[in-house]
Design a protein that fits this description.
This protein is an alpha+beta fold. The chain has one domain. The chain has helices spanning about 10-20, 25-30, 85-90, 115-125, and strands at about 45-50, 60-65, 70-75, 105. It has a 4-stranded antiparallel sheet, covered by helices on one side. The longest helix has 13 residues, at about 10-20. It is elongated. The model has no long low-confidence stretch (mean pLDDT about 85).
C-alpha cells in the first residue's frame, strides 16, 4: 500500500481495462511467457514497438514483465518491418502464430546484426548467403 491507501489489487482491474481500450491484437495478448509458460495477458505488457538500433533494426517487439512469474524480457519478430506502414499493419492484423514466431531477446546473440545482414544482402543483389 502507498500513502493514499491504494494497493495493487485496487488498480489491477482499472489498469487492465485501460490496456484493453487500446485494442491490442489478440495474437500479442495470447503469447505464452517463455519462462513460466502462462499466457501473458494484458497486465504483462509494458510496451510494443519497432526497433531502430542496428542490431535489431526492423524488429517488431513487445516488452514483457510476466504477471505470473515477474520475469521481464522482450519478444521480437525479426526483420519483419521495412517501414512504419508494416509496423502499423502488424497492429491491425491477427497474424497466425504458426507463420510468424516471436523470439525472446535473450536468445538473440550480440553478433547477429540486422543492419549488417541488410547491407550485405543489398550489396550482393539479394543473396542472403554472401
Amino acid at each position: 500500500m502507498d500513502r493514499q491507501g491504494i494497493s495493487f489489487k485496487d488498480v489491477k482491474k482499472p489498469h487492465e481495462d485501460l490496456i484493453k481500450s487500446f485494442q491490442i491484437p489478440e495474437w500479442i495478448i495470447k503469447q505464452k511467457c517463455t519462462k513460466c509458460g502462462e499466457e501473458l495477458g494484458y497486465l504483462s505488457l509494458r510496451s510494443i514497438g519497432l526497433k531502430l538500433n542496428a542490431q535489431h533494426i526492423g524488429n517488431f517487439f513487445v516488452e514483457v514483465c510476466c504477471q505470473h512469474c515477474q520475469n521481464g524480457y522482450e519478444l521480437h519478430i525479426r526483420s519483419i518491418c521495412k517501414n512504419i506502414e508494416d509496423f502499423i499493419n502488424m497492429l491491425k492484423t491477427n497474424y497466425q502464430m504458426s507463420v510468424i514466431k516471436f523470439e525472446p531477446d535473450y536468445s538473440i546473440t550480440y553478433d547477429e546484426n540486422n543492419l549488417v545482414k541488410n547491407i550485405i544482402q543489398k550489396e550482393n543483389y539479394g543473396n542472403k548467403k554472401a
